[in-house]
Amino acid sequence: MASFKSIASEKIDQKQIFCLFFFIKRLHYYAYFEHRDEPFDTSFKRRRPLEFRLGKYEVLPGIDLAVSTMQRRERSKFIISSDLLYGELGCAPHIPESAWCLYVIELLTTNESSTVIHDEQLLIKTTTNKQQIDDFAKRIRLAQTLRNTGNEEYANGQLDRALRSYNKARQLIHKRVTLIDGKNEEQYHQLLLKLHLNSAQCYLRLDNFEKCLRACRDALVIEPNNLKALFRASVSLRSLNQLDEAEKYLSKALAIDPQNHDILTEVIKLKDALDLAIQTKTKKSDELFTLKESLINNQNDNDDILSCIDVSDQFRLKLDSLLKEFMESNETLEPFTVQRHNFSDTEFYYIELLAKKQSIMDYENNESGYRYYQEQFNSADVDSSE
Q1: 106-139 confidence digits (pLDDT tens)
Q2: CATH number, domain 149-272, options 3.30.1360.10, 1.25.40.10, 1.10.3810.10, 3.90.640.10
Q3: Phi-psi region for residue 75, left (φ > 0), alpha (ψ -120 to 50) or beta?
């Protein structure tokens, strides 16, 4: 036969339960939402009792408080307020917002026959500072619970759900807790660091390299030499083809742990990517050189050459339009300096070839016409092909 108890946040302010030591508890439980016949959570799903240290915030604060009132082999029912469970946010899609829950708990074993005392002399008067401590501890406990939920979801391959749990935990504590002392600050930063790293790993497995890189950089703000953040940032940058930046992060990681297998494997992958980039650049330069030679020596084959140049259709259409406008204009135009860097090599050679085909630009005799066209084209709102 089970006893019935109720735990709500307003009762905690009136009477505190103090644990003499961090006792280890083993228990089975069922958890129900209001008006639901089936439990949304139970220890029997995992086929083993829940085990935790009382007072160490390893479980939801409501469960911690509920178990602190129990004796071995006791079976009790608890109605626990949302403030001591998942709070106002809940944990979608499993836990609705502001949800009160019924917990049926059976305490199996404990390392002492009596684990708690009730001592009115130990009550601390409520002050502004005490309220801040309570708020900090509550948010940290809830965030840690959300992180643990995310870890379970990640282990089950539910990456999107894990990310939601990590993001909720981060929102719960980020810039919303009052840091009382150095110990609290360290606890806050360590939890925030773990949330950033866990999120980065999820994004990496989802091939969302931009968000992975952002999470890694947030983690490195907290701990500049964090090995996991440096490694995952390097992998993301390599995948984004930002090879020089990837090399900087990977060099730092390699200096920290030169024997790490994953880092050494990534060094090989990055070296291969750098070699390929150099080969591609060399090949492209050779092709452009050959193209320019064809431009000079094979003027009758201009149409074939133009069709092979890799520029966007929008670029071609805009260029044709501007050249036509230039050829139909009877106005005298003033020459000016050409800004060569406004175009890629491919685009620049395409402009030269098309202008030469239209007989409106001669390298020696009609340089001003080329300059006029270049200025008009620079001022147009056209995306380059690169």
Answers
A1: 999 887 533 333 333 333 333 334 444 457 777 8
A2: 1.25.40.10
A3: beta
Query: Where is pLDDT greater, at 356 or 165?
Result: 165
Q: Say if domain 3-123 classifies as CATH 3.90.180.10.
A: no
The DSSP line for 139-195 is: HHHHHHHHHHHHHHHHHTT-HHHHHHHHHHHHHHHTTTS---SHHHHHHHHHHHHHH
- Most confident segment among 48-62, 85-99, 195-209, 297-311: 195-209
At position 330, the amino acid (one-letter code) is N
Longest CA pairwise span in the chain (Å)? 106
As a whole number of angstroms, the distance between CA 231 and CA 234 comes to 5
